[in-house]
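A reminder from the course coordinator: this example appears on the midterm review sheet, so study it carefully.

Given structure:
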């Protein structure tokens, strides 16, 4: 059949593709789709995992699958149980520490007891208040922006933004969706079940202050409990080891250590209940302090390099573009930028680490 009318561009393009399809087994056909940010029509390859709009800069992920959050209620229940356990654990440490330590401290000196009790009250208030702010303060939601149509969105207005299929709204580059909280979190670092909340832009500083206060409290508790335990520890009942001809060898040192350890353990059997509690508090505070110190060091390192934990995992081994400097720590804690002039010169220098 002969057609006299001229072929349209779309039909001509289709003919070209059809002819190429006869000659080749695999052909990339450009599919017509719309950018979610500005609504402009774009042509992309069906094999592409995503594309970036040339007008607004929004990133569209093709064939994105929304994972059904079946265990959301169980996660919420888990977080609430963890928060209750942590809160009860802190209150137990505070109360049992006062009961076990301060009668011994007050027996030494009334002024010394008042001083240490004041320190205990300050550390307790600081730890509990920072824990409350980190646990029950919103972690931070991304700002509301205009999107969805070409006249509304300016050029580059959604640069590197992605679309959250759970919240059905744009998601900035430093925003992540937390399936445990059921919302997008701005500058999300991680979801901590022990505070039952995400650590984000709004409560990250409170979380760091909570870690610092808890580490200081555990160090203080380890020192006071060890001193109080030594004060009430029963006297060691053992005979001193005599040296033969003033010679000290490895066998003598081993025998001395063995006798002192055995005498120390045998005297522990006569410890009162207060002494056993002091030993438990000392071991718990040391182990907890070591773990929290490692976590605090990791958090401060990520702040120093200008990243969050999730951004560090997402970037992987890619080259770091952020400035690694102590100025990041100064800005994080809300200090004015001019306060850095009081830092030592080697702190003020820019430190770039090369891999």
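Designed residues:
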């Amino acid at each position: 059949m002969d057609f006299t009318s001229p072929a349209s561009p779309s039909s001509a393009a289709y003919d070209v593709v059809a002819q190429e399809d006869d000659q080749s087994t695999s052909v990339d056909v450009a599919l017509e789709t719309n950018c979610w940010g500005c609504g402009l029509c774009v042509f992309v390859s069906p094999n592409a995992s995503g594309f970036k709009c040339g007008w607004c800069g929004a990133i569209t992920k093709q064939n994105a699958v929304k994972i059904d959050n079946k265990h959301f209620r169980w996660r919420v229940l888990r977080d609430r149980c963890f928060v209750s356990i942590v809160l009860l654990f802190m209150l137990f440490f505070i109360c049992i520490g006062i009961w076990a330590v301060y009668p011994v401290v007050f027996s030494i000196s009334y002024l010394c007891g008042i001083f240490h009790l004041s320190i205990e009250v300050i550390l307790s208030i600081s730890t509990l208040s920072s824990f409350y702010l980190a646990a029950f303060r919103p972690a931070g939601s991304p700002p509301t922006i205009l999107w969805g149509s070409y006249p509304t969105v300016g050029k580059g207005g959604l640069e590197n933004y992605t679309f959250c299929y759970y919240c059905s709204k744009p998601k900035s580059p430093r925003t992540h969706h937390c399936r445990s909280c059921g919302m997008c979190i701005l500058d999300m670092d991680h979801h901590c079940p022990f505070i039952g909340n995400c650590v984000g832009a709004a409560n990250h500083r409170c979380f760091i202050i909570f870690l610092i206060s808890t580490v200081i409290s555990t160090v203080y508790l380890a020192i006071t409990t060890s001193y109080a335990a030594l004060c009430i520890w029963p006297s060691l009942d053992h005979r001193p080891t005599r040296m033969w001809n003033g010679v000290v060898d490895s066998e003598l040192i081993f025998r001395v250590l063995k006798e002192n350890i055995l005498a120390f353990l045998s005297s522990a059997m006569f410890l009162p209940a207060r002494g056993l509690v002091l030993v438990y508090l000392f071991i718990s505070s040391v182990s907890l302090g070591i773990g929290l110190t490692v976590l605090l060091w990791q958090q401060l390192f990520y702040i120093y390099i200008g990243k969050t934990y999730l951004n560090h995992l997402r970037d992987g081994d890619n080259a770091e573009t952020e400035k690694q400097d102590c100025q990041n720590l100064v800005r994080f804690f809300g200090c004015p930028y001019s306060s850095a002039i009081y830092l030592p010169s080697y702190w003020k220098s820019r430190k770039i680490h090369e891999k």
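Strands lie at 31-34, 41-44, 50-52, 59-61, 162-164, 169-171, 175-178, 183-186, 190-192, 197-199. The chain has a mean pLDDT of 77.
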